[in-house]
Design brief:
Keywords: Membrane, Transmembrane, Transmembrane helix. By secondary structure, the protein is an all-alpha fold. It is 67% helix and 0% strand. Helix 1 packs antiparallel against helix 3, helix 2 crosses helix 3 and helix 4 packs antiparallel against helix 5. The longest helix has 39 residues.
Length: 209
């Protein structure tokens, strides 16, 4: 029977010792060559950024008209605020003539509520129209909402201007109010025209494809 094989004797070949019987020297970490440098990036150009399309003439016109409408709205609010003392006096007389039985405190309260309520309503509609301008350029549904806001704004202006435009600046106030509404309507019409053109181009492109 063959003899059982055991582990090789120290210094024997096959135990990390070459056939010559001379052990190899131990390798130190300093003898290990460093790893090769990482190759540079093949493409150093940044990732492409989609270019923002420039607005066309109709869109620029719409934005200019909205800006002018907003300026007119701010000016009329400023005029009403600066002339509020005179306006309160005229409102007190108006309320006293309409309701002779009211005492002075009730008259003051009614005049204050009428003035600040009308002024706040005009301010809210002015801010709402500016906030809706951007979405209205992209969505037809928002343009319908903005049209409704303009109609309600005009109705509130007709009712409320009597409470904020009784003083000497009433004529300028009414002109600015009319200019604000007309400019807003023209800006909305321009935005609607551009939206129709864009939708028509999309339909033509789909038909050609």
């Amino acid at each position: 029977m063959p003899a059982a094989s055991g582990p090789p004797a120290p210094g024997a070949p096959g135990n990390g010792v070459p056939a010559t019987g001379v052990p190899l020297p131990a390798r130190r970490l300093s003898d290990v060559p460093p790893p090769p440098p990482r190759p540079p990036m093949s493409d150093r150009t940044p990732a492409p950024v989609p270019a923002t399309p420039k607005p066309d003439r109709v869109l620029r016109l719409s934005r200019i008209l909205w800006g002018l409408s907003f300026v007119a709205g701010v000016l009329l609010l400023a005029i009403a605020f600066l002339r509020r003392s005179r306006q309160f006096e005229l409102l007190r007389g108006f309320v006293s003539d309409a309701e002779p039985g009211y005492d002075a405190s009730t008259v003051d309260t009614a005049a204050t509520v009428a003035f600040w309520g009308a002024l706040a309503a005009l301010a809210v509609f002015t801010v709402a129209e500016i906030l809706l301008r951007g979405p209205a350029e992209r969505r037809a549904g928002v343009r319908w909402v903005l049209l409704l806001v303009l109609v309600v704004h005009g109705t509130v202006a007709l009712v409320g201007e009597a409470f904020v435009a009784l003083a000497e600046g009433a004529v300028a106030f009414r002109w600015l109010l009319g200019a604000q509404l007309v400019l807003g309507a023209a800006a909305l019409a321009a935005a609607s025209l551009r939206g129709r053109r864009a939708r028509r181009r999309e339909q033509d492109g789909l038909g050609a494809a």
